[in-house]
What does this fold into?
Amino acid sequence: GAYVLQVKATDADDPTYGNSARVVYSILQGQPYFSIDPKTGVIRTALPNMDREVKEQYQVLIQAKDMGGQLGGLAGTTTVNITLTDVNDNPPRFPKSIFHLKVPESSHVGSAIGRIRAVDPDFGKNAEIEYNIVPGDGGNLFDITTDENTQEGVIKLKKPLDFETKKAYTFKVEASNLHLDHRFHSVGPFKDTATVKINVLDMDEPPVFSKPVYTMEVYEDTPVGTIIGAVTAQDLDAGSSSVRYFIDWKNDVDSYFTIDATEGTIATNELLDRESTAQYNFSIIASKVSNPLLTSKVNVIINVLDVNEFPPEISVPYETSVCENAKPGQVIQTVTAADKDLSPAGQRFSFRLSPEASNKPNFTVHDYRNNTAGIETRRNGYSRREQELYFLPVVIEDSSYPVQSSTNTMTIRVCRCDSDGTILSCNVEAIFLPVGLSTGALIAILLCIVILLVIVVLYVALRRQKKKDTLMTSKEDIRDNVIHYDDEGGGEEDTQAFDISALRNPKVIEDNKMRRDIKPDTLCSPRQRPSVEDNTDIRHFINQRLQENDVDPSAPPYDSLATYAYEGNGSVAESLSSIDSLTTEADQDYDYLSDWGPHFKILADMFGEEESYNPDKVT
It folds into this structure.
């Protein structure tokens, strides 16, 4: 009774004329699957649960016939093709309840080891099946997926099999439809279950190492032939076979070690040097004696441990310089150390001056105790002219065992710097050479300086020769010598005035020199002489000083000349010397000049009242 479609026929007769235009429908072919309503032409299913899997297409012959007319009823026919559409009304079914599979133990992980299939009579997406392993015995070792082309369940290996460990596995697999139709839920569960039994086949396998990687350590000074470790491999098959070991030779590095073919012990074959090679990486192969073609390989890593055999040294060659104007305690260089040995954690380097340099007052080393040190100055200033380069021996010592130390000589160059400590020049020629002058220009300047010095020396020598000739001439002159001195007398009334500077005859001074033929033992200390009283006569003054020298027990045995600067008295103007002059000219009183007569009239006018002096009137 399910509606399929409706057909309709038309009649060209007059519908008002009897039953000529009245049409009746009937099925001539297609029964008992379909039926048609005679009046409306509606086609319906005639049987319940038509199964597409049994028959998919049907041809139905339909007749339309009128009910009257002289011709006794006319009819027309048409064919209707009906195709059944599939629905998911059938669950998948396994053709058998148990599947048996045989799998070699050498099967690789991820490979397909077998197939099972459930049957679904539906078509298209209604026939798509999903397979799952029921949690249990084989859930951890096996997996199953669906082949989209064949709708088969493909069983794959998740972990390697071992016949010696387990020979058989049993688990269940469930097959179910992916696309369900809710109209058919009442039909029952759309899934099925089957049991899979897997038998593991024993295979002749290669030996198996006890570890995936072997790591060993050895000191670099280990003697040749010392055993440093061993590898182990076993034949796990039922009929166990002996194993032989050998090194997989790939390069010359592998020749540093040997392996015992039976025991698997590894020993050194050559002396090792960690500074040359810190780690060795090679492979060892194990094979079965019963079947040498079955082999396995393992990687061996050997780390060479360091032995403290190298002393620490200055890490880089420093170019150290010091300014000429450096102050004491100034750090001119910070140094670090490096060790060719593998420095352990917490390695410390100590710095100090060598014993032979500790007493020199030039530089010192300050250890900062963090594996660095500072070179400090100990002097206040340095001179490139005195010494351009200083060599400072620095001792560096490590903290490993045994302790290693080395003496490193640092070269320190003295440079010219500005006030801020910026280096201007460290070149040796810069001491004498201004910036920008070449060597040729320097030589030319030096030649000019030498020529000037020669001219000056010749000039001084000629002057001395001329002066000596003049002196000899004056000594041979029998006439009285005229001595010039700038000293003004006390005036006409100063009859006792006498300038004793006349006693200072050049000839007397020349004779006053010390005798070269007698070396005085000690020099006379100056004696305290009494002050000269006012109005002392010059004759008396000189006689008094002469007597003092004659009776002086400390006087030298050779001739000496004592000179005295004394100015006579008795002048009304007193002394005109600058020694006793007043501090300023304004304090001087020159009124007495007018009392001296006409000879001093001009002086009186000059030093008297300023308004009374007229230079134009002076003749």
Remarks:
- DSSP finds four helices and 31 strands in the chain.
